[in-house]
Structure formats: structure tokens, C-alpha cells
Amino acid sequence: MLYTAGEAAEILNLPVSTVRYYDKEGLLPHLERSSSGIRLFKEEDIEELRLIQCLKKTGLSLKDIKIFINLPEDGEKTIHTRLSILLQQKQVLEEKKKELDSMMGVVDYKLWFYRTAEAAGTTQAGKDPRNIPKSLRNGYECLHFLTGNKKSKS
Known about the structure:
two-stranded antiparallel ribbon; 59% helix; 3% strand; mainly alpha; 2 strands
């Protein structure tokens, strides 16, 4: 089945201008056109657009995505390069995930703190670190320890 740029954009929940831009920038090297110049997207092109979206969300630049997308044109000798690019992006995602997990810990701790305060009618209720549930201690520590050193208890 063939899709127009508008239909492809709708399938992917992207602005049609983004789909056209990706084509203009050479990110869709195998895209066909009708005799009147209308872009015609095959299922493979939709898959390629999904890959572009995914790689872009990992933080890979469009310049580097273009390199990655075009590597298969140079044959099997580029498999290691493609693998290296993906491994590097996986490492970037793992670092982002650690960061997000840390932020989630802080939010979970603060949710517990304010729920405890609301139930008790005072913010003093959640201030004693000994009362913090074990599962929320990392979030507490992210907020209350400076540069990896515990604050002195004075």
C-alpha cells in the first residue's frame, strides 16, 4: 500500500512538514514519487520514519541519523559501524534512565512527604528521616546530601 506525505504524517503523529523535511534532508533515500512529484510512502518508508523518530528521541542528531540510515548503501562492511552507533545510543538512554529514575525517586519522596503532612496537618510530620519508608530513601538522599557527602546532623 502507498501513502501520501499527509497520510504518513498522520500514521506517525508527525506534522507533514516534518515528514517532508526528513525527505528533503536525505533521510528517506528510497522514497518514491508519483509522475506528478507527489511523495509515495511504502510500509518500509513508514518503518524508516519510525526509526528516525526513535533515534531522534534518543538524542541522535539528524546529521548522524542520516549517516546511520545511509550506511546500508555501503553494504555489509558497515554492520560494525551501525552496531556501534546503536550501542552508543543505548548507553545514552541508560544514562537518561538513571537520571529519570533519580528524579522519580525525589518526586515519590516529596509525594509521601506532603501526603504525610496533609494527614497530620503539619509539614513537621515528615521531617524525621527515621520515619521515611525504605523505598523512598534514595529520593530523600538526592535532596539532602551534598556532593555525595552526608550532611552533618547538628
